[in-house]
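Why this split exists: single-chain examples teach little about how molecules sit against one another. For that reason, every record in the complexes split bundles all components of an assembly together and asks for one structure covering all of them. Below is a record exactly as it appears in the raw files.
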Amino acid sequence: MPIRGLKGGMLKFLSEGDLKAIHIATVEILSEIGVKMEYEPALEIFKDFGAEVDFKNKIVKIGEDLLRKGLSSAPSAFTLHGKTEDTDIKVDPERVYTIGGSSALNVFDLDGNYRPAVFDDLIKLTLLQNKMENLHIMHAIVIPSDIEEYGVDRLLFAGTFPYTSRNYYSQSQTGADGVGEQLKMAAVFQGSEDAVRKNPMFTEVVCMVSPLKHEKVNSEVIIECAKNNIPVYIEVDAMPGGTTPAPIAGCLVEQNANILAGIVLAQLIKPGTSCIYSIASGLMDMTSGGYSGAAPETNLLHCCTAQVAHYYNLPFQGGTGIDAKISDAQAGYERALQVLSNALAGTNFIHLSFGMMEMMMLASYEQVVIDNEIMGATYRMLKGVEVNDSALSVDLLRKTGHGGHFLNYKETAEYVRRNNWIPKITNRDSWSTWQAMGAKSMRELANEEAKRILQENTEPVISKEQTEEILKMAKSYHKQAQERLRKQEGK
Amino acid sequence: MAIEEIKKELYNNVLSGDFELTKELALKAISEGVNPLEAINSYLVPAIELVGEKFGRKEYFLPDLMRSANAMKSALDIFETEIHKSGIERKSQGKIVIGTVKGDIHEIGKSIVAALLSAKGFDVIDVGIDVCSDIFINKVIEKKADILAMSALLPITMPYQAAVIEELKKRGIRDKVKVMVGGAPVTQEHADKIGADGYADNAVDAVKLAESLMKQ
C-alpha cells in the first residue's frame, strides 16, 4: 500500500483577497517584465507558443493566457515512487511529507567532531535517515569534500540511491547530461530505462536565481525531465531584502513569477509533467547579510508560499535548515517552530527537515534522530482530533458517573493505541528516575540511537552487485564530466 | 546656507544614507567654497566610521550600511574630482579588482564588499559575476591593482579561487598582487590551503583586511 500522508492546510495567514492580489501582481511581472532565460532552446519554445521573446536580452514575457494554458496541464496529484510499494507516496496539495537533508559541507559526527563531510558520511547518513519513520523522500545530505565538485551529482546518486528505500531527490549540476546518466544508473535497479521513465524512483530539482532569472542548466534540466517523465522540483531560493523585495508579499510575487515560468516551460515541453512548486528561501539577516532558514519571518514566508502554490492547485515544497550549530535549545525551538508551522500550513514536502544545521552548512547525525522525534510530535498534532459518537464518549461518561477513572475500558486502550504519539527520546520521567537512569540529555540519547542504528544497518537496500555497478558508472560519468570541464577551460 | 551648516549636512547625509541627495549637496558645498579635502577628512570619513560602528552594534542594518556607503561614494567622487582639478592627488587607499568567480552568479555579498571598500576610499574595479581567470588577471594587470578580491558562494565554485591563484603564478605576477577571498562556504582554512593572502568572514572585516593588506 502506498503512503497517504496526513493533511495540513488549517493554518492560513493570507486571505482569498490577498492571494488574488498576489496573482494579479505576478501576472503583471510575467507579462510586462518577464523572466530572463539563458538557454536559447527555452526561448524558442516560448516563442513557438506565442510568448513575446526578446532574443537579444533573453527575456520571455508570459501573458496570462499562456500562463493559464501552462498551469492547466500541471497535475495536482501524482505518485512519487520508492523502491517498494509501501514507500510510494501519494502527492497532492493537502498531504504533508518530509524530505531529508541536502548538500551540507560539514558533519557533526557521533564522536563529537565538526569536520568536512566525506563519501562515507553520505552513505552512513543515508542509512541513518532511511530508518527514520517520519522521513518520506531522501536527498543527498552532504557534498563530500573528498570528491572533485564538478559532476559530483553522479557520485551523490551512487552514495544515496542504493542505500534508501525512499524516492530519491536528485540534482544535476551539469544540465541535461546529468539527468540522462542518472536515469541509466536508476535503470540498473529498475531493469531498463523505460521502466525508469514509467515509474521513476528519483526526481530532480532546479534552483532558479532571484530576481527573475533562469540559468542555462535550469532550463536544460526542466526540459530533460519533462521529456523523460521525471518529476521536477522547481525551486527558488529567495532572500527577502536581498534578492527579492523585503516585504513578504513582494517576495511571494517574485518567487511566484520565477517558479511559474519554470512550471510553464515544463508543461509546454510535455503537458502533464509532475512539477512541485518549491522554495528554500530564507530571510537575509540584515545584521550580517547571512541566510537564516529558521527566522520566524522565514517560517511566515514558507507558510504563505504554501497558500500561493495551493492557489494554483500545485503541491508545494517548503521548509529549510535551521541556524543552530549544535543540538541545543536553539536547535529544538527553531526546528519545532519551523516544521509545525509548515505542517499546519500544508507544506506538502517539508524539505531539509532532518539533520540540517548552521544555515545549510552542517549535517548532524544526532540532529537527524532529534528531528525525527520533533516530526513525530508534529505529525501527532497534524492528525488532529476525532469528533464522533465514540470519541464524545457520552455512554462511557454515564457508565463511570462521578469520580472513578477510564483506565479499565477497552475503548480507552484502543483510542490510546490509535491516537497517542509515543516518544522515543523525549524524557517524561521525574527528576529522581531520570537521575537513576543516567541523567542523559536528549543529545546523548540521540547519539546512542544513531550509533545503534548504524551498527545494525550497514548494507544497501538493493543488491551489492547493483550498488557496485552504479558506483562504477558514477565514477566513470564523474571522470568524463571532469574531462569535459577541463576541455571547456582549454587546459 | 552657511558653510558650517553645509558641512554638518554632509555629515548627516552620509549618516542617514540619503544618497539620492548627496550629489546636489556636495556640489553646493563646492560652490559655497567648502575645502574638499577638509570635507572628506573632517566630515565624510567620521560619518562613515560611525556608520560602521553602528552596524557593528546592530543599530544599523545592511540596507542602512549600503545606502550610507553609496552616499559616501557619491560625495567622494565629487570632492576628489575637485581636488584633482586643483592639481593635488589625494592618495587612493589602494586599487582593488573584485568579482564573483566563474560558474557562480551570486552578486550581493560581492557588491556589499565593493560598496564598503569604495566608501573607505579604495579605488574599486567591480568585474561582476561569473568571472573567468583571464578577466580577473587582465584587469589586475591593466589597472595595476594592489588587491584581487574573489567571492564564491557555492562549494562547487570555491576551487576556482585556487585556479585563479595558480594562473597568477603561471603568469609570474603572483607577488605583484594581494589576493583576498570570501563567500559563505569559504573559510580561513580554505584561504590558507589555496595560498590566498587573506580571508574575511563579513563585509566590514573584508574592508579591515584590505586596509591591513595595503600596509604589508
